[in-house]
Every structure is written in C-alpha cells, then in structure tokens.
Amino acid sequence: YLGLIPMKDFWYPYSGFFYSSLPFFSELIFGWLHKVLIFLILAFSVYKIFNHEKIRSLCMILAVWLLQGSTVGTDRYFLSLSIVFCFAASIKISHPVTFFVWGLFGGYVFFMEPVQLMYAIPACLLLMMASFIVERRHDVRSRIVKGYLIGLGTAALVAVSYMHYLSSQGAMSEVLAFYKTLNSLGAAGMSATDIVDWAYRSISSIGVYWWLTLLLFIFSLCSLFTRPKKLWQIEDFLPLAIALVNIMIFQKWLIRPFFNTQGMAIPIIGLLLIIVRSDARRFFSYPFMQYSALVAVGMSLAVVLKISNPVVALIREVANRPLSIQKD
After folding, report:
1. DSSP of 202-254
2. 3-class DSSP state of 50
C-alpha cells in the first residue's frame, strides 16, 4: 500500500466518492451531507411536480425517505434519479433559478460519478421533448428554452472547472486513458448472463428488477395514452423517464450480473408515481392494469420471501440436498 490519495495522486471512475476513503469523521459528515442534498432535491421536486398537493407529495417523500434509508447504495443511484426529478420540476416551474439549480446539481453529479449523469441523459432528453408538447404557448416555450441554456451552461461551467482542477493535479491524462480503454475494460470485465433464467426460470432480485422495469415501461405508456393529449402535463412523462433510467442502469447488469438491491428502489419510485396520481382510480379501472398490478405485487412479495423468509431458505436447502438411499 503506497498511501496514495484519491483525486490528488490519481483519478478513478467513482470520482467524488473518494470521501468513503477519508478519515472516519470527515467521511461521516460528507456522506451525511450528500444524502441530505439528494433527499432535499427529490423532496422539493416532488412537491413542485405534484402542484403543492400535500397528501400525494407526503406519500412520495415518505417513500423516498424509507427507500433511501433502507437500501444500501442509493447515495449513488439516486443521483441519476434526482437529476431527472429536478429537471422535471424545473420545467414545471419554468423559472431561471430552478434551471440554474438543476445545472449546478448536474455539475455536482458529474463530480461525484460521471456515469450517473449518463444514466439520466436519455430521460432528460425525453422530458425536454415532452416540454414542447405540453407547453403550447410561445412565451412559455421561450422561457423554457432560456432555462435549458442556463442549466446546461451552469453544468458545463462546473464540469470545465472540475476538469481544470484535474489538469492542475496532472490527472487529465488518466481520465482520457480511462475513457480510451473503456471498451476493452468492459470486454475484460464481462460475465456470462442468462437473461432467460432471470426472466422465467428463477425468482431472483435482478429478475424482479427486470420485470418491474418492464411493467413500469408498460404502465408509463398506458398511463400516458389513456389520458387525453390536451390534458398532458410534464409529470405524465416522468414515469416513462424513470423507466429509461432503469433501462440504462440495466445494461450494466447485463455485462456485470452482480445485482445489488440498491437498484430496486428506482423502479419502485416510478411505479409509486403512477399509483399516487390524481386519476389513478380511472387508470386502474382497466382489467389489463389490474392484472399487471397484481403481477407487480406478487413479484415484490416473491423477492421479499426469497431474501428474508427462513422457511423458504429451509425448503431450498432441503430441496438442494443430495438424496441418499440406505440399503437394508
């Protein structure tokens, strides 16, 4: 061990998450502030997206709080989720300050872990296109476009400042070397993946994640197109945007199938957005939606039983035990 310090002596893909290597008290404070920031971004965004409706907002914020506190690793994967929520709230408010905050937070995400920003880009592009469908007034569209420029400019300024810092530390060559060899690193680190087994043959966490993501994608499209187009709002596109985040993250598990439960929180939040919507009763009046909801609940119970039920663990142990035949 050479005693090298992350981000000072070398650069690595987890970037700003070097705080986990800091001394105890510094790591504790930084980690706590990081989680508080994510929670505040999500809570504020939810409140604005739901038009200040206290009950619906409280339900979603409580769900975010519970998932963030009980699921290990959400301090990483909630970064991409927070970017998407913050962007949707910025479009909803259409104020330059909110777009500036979005850009500033985007720069922070770029500093913490650049790949989380990549997960969020397709979802943000979807919301960007949706904003021109939802907002038909020319003055509102003009205000939103100016907001996009403010947000993207702020994020770019933070990113350039960060890269300038890396250059001053002599680490930019390592950054470029990493991205140049990314394809080779991905090929070298790949593992065999049995998608059929995930989807059909076994009850596994990643299998449930795959089906929840698929259900979220279907639910999102159905909830969008069962609503009159003239009533579309930016929040109607948000579950679909979260489904895109899930799909982007899922590609990681295809080449590195070592799934952690941290990924389960994002599709659950996307499904909750549909459940707590104001016209959820009308939406779930369709038989297909009812059957799909039962499947989603069943899969969630299945993964809970698989992880935590000692009876299921005992049955599995007995079933896997080799059969021995005693001769008289």
Report:
1. ---HHHHHHHHHHHHHHHHHHHHHTS-GGG--GGGSHHHHHHHHHHHHHHHHH
2. coil
pLDDT in tens, 174-232: 677 766 766 665 555 555 555 555 555 555 666 777 777 888 888 888 878 777 778 88
Within 10 Å of residue 191's Cβ, how many Cβ atoms? 9
For tokens 């002596």, name the residue.
9
Reduced to 3 states (helix: H, G, I; strand: E, B; else coil), residue 257 is coil
C-alpha 281/C-alpha 300 separation (Å) is 21
Please list the residues that pair with 6 across neighbouring strands: 10
How far is C-alpha 107 from the geometric centre of its chain's CA atoms? 17
User: What's the first-to-final CA gap in the chain, in angstroms?
Assistant: 62
| Sequence-separated (6 or more) residues with CB below 8 Å from residue 285 | none
Contact between 107 and 159 under an 8 Å Cβ cutoff? The reply is: yes
SS3 7: coil
In degrees and rounded to multiples of 5, residue 6 shows phi and psi of -55, 145
Handedness of CA 187, 189, 192, 194 (dihedral sign): negative
Provide the angle, in degrees to the nearest 10, between the axes of the packed helices 265-275 and 74-93. 30
Determine contact, residues 87/104, Cβ cutoff 8 Å.
Answer: no
What is residue 277's DSSP assignment? S
Q: What pLDDT does residue 250 have?
A: 79
In our burial notation (b when 16+ CB lie closer than 10 A, e otherwise), range 28-56 reads eebeeebeeebbebbbbbbbbbbeeeeeb
Q: Are 259 and 205 in contact (CB under 8 A)?
A: yes
Radius of gyration of the chain (CA): 22
